[in-house]
């Protein structure tokens, strides 16, 4: 599979979580939409308007500036997160933090953009249906364009979740170290995202790896790629085994913390490498579709 790298050499790491910690009750407790089976499926969701901040003209202008597609001469290569050089990883961290600290728009640039995922119009259209992949592709591109306004060489890496799924202790993957995306056993205290704050009263960025949910396996990806029609891999018709949205939901829930809840998930920067991976799987799916047609 092209979206996957086979080498396991990336897992030589310093352990960031000393033994699997019990998941405690401080998990983000939300009345908003949780990823997974418990999520209501009515068109009226979400009920809360608290995520619906008014957009100023400066906000709209900035968000509009992110909606462009790279030129042919500016094709970007998204790498697996562990394949970034130290410099590339550092640049990515700097770009995320420059957006987070830029308050020339409402909230700050990172949070304003992350909040697009929460607004009811987007939320209702982006999830629980065949638009899931397409909506998130554009959202991912907007975040990548935003990052490139700060550091122009940055691309969003993809996190090949299946490599971690194959580990005995996926919570001790180097992904969850301060040099990468930060820890997974409560509040993130070290690294580029240490003590990041989220919006709407959700406080410190936090994660509770492995409490619930599950990581995506190579078999999951093979199952998805065994199908040839979008309806067979998306809601509402796809069986769970082939359903890319539901399989990705399990990863959100596995990470826990903000990632578990749709309206605040995009405040966690791991959201983007995860979606970069699902986007890569979708690209491969589409290329197979085209090949079959020819
Ligand atoms: Cu989403």
TrEMBL record:
The keyword Metal-binding applies. Residues 127-144, 268-279 form the Tyrosinase copper-binding domain. It is an enzyme of class 1 (oxidoreductase). InterPro entries: Di-copper_centre_dom_sf, Tyrosinase/Hemocyanin, Tyrosinase_Cu-bd. PROSITE patterns: TYROSINASE_1 (PS00497), TYROSINASE_2 (PS00498). The keyword Metal-binding applies. One of its GO terms (molecular function) is tyrosinase activity. This is TYR. Keywords: Copper, Metal-binding, Oxidoreductase. Its EC number is 1.14.18.1. Coiled coil: none annotated.
């Amino acid at each position: 599979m092209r979206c996957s790298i086979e080498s396991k050499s990336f897992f030589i790491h310093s352990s960031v979580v000393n033994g699997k910690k019990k998941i405690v009750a401080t998990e983000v407790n939300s009345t908003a939409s949780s990823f997974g089976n418990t999520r209501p499926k009515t068109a009226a969701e979400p009920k809360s308007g608290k995520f619906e901040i008014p957009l100023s003209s400066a906000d709209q202008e900035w968000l509009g500036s992110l909606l462009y597609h790279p030129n042919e001469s500016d094709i970007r290569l998204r790498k697996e997160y562990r394949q970034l050089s130290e410099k590339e990883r550092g640049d990515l961290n700097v770009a995320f933090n420059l957006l987070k600290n830029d308050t020339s728009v409402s909230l700050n640039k990172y949070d304003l953009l992350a909040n697009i995922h929460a607004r009811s119009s987007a939320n209702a259209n982006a999830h629980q249906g065949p638009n899931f992949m397409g909506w998130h592709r554009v959202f991912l591109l907007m975040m990548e364009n935003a990052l490139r306004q700060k550091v122009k060489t940055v691309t969003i890496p993809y996190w090949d979740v299946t490599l971690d799924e194959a580990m005995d202790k996926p919570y001790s993957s180097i992904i969850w170290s301060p040099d990468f995306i930060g820890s997974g056993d409560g509040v993130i205290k070290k690294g580029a995202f240490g003590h990041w704050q989220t919006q709407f009263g959700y406080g410190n960025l936090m994660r509770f790896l492995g409490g619930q949910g599950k990581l995506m396996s190579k078999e999951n990806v093979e199952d998805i790629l065994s199908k040839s029609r979008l309806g067979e891999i998306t809601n509402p018709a796809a069986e769970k085994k082939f359903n890319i949205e539901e399989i990705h939901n399990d990863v959100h829930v596995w990470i826990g913390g903000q990632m578990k809840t749709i309206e605040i998930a995009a405040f966690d920067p791991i959201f983007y490498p995860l979606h970069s991976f699902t986007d890569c799987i979708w690209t491969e799916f589409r290329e197979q579709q085209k090949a079959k047609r020819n």
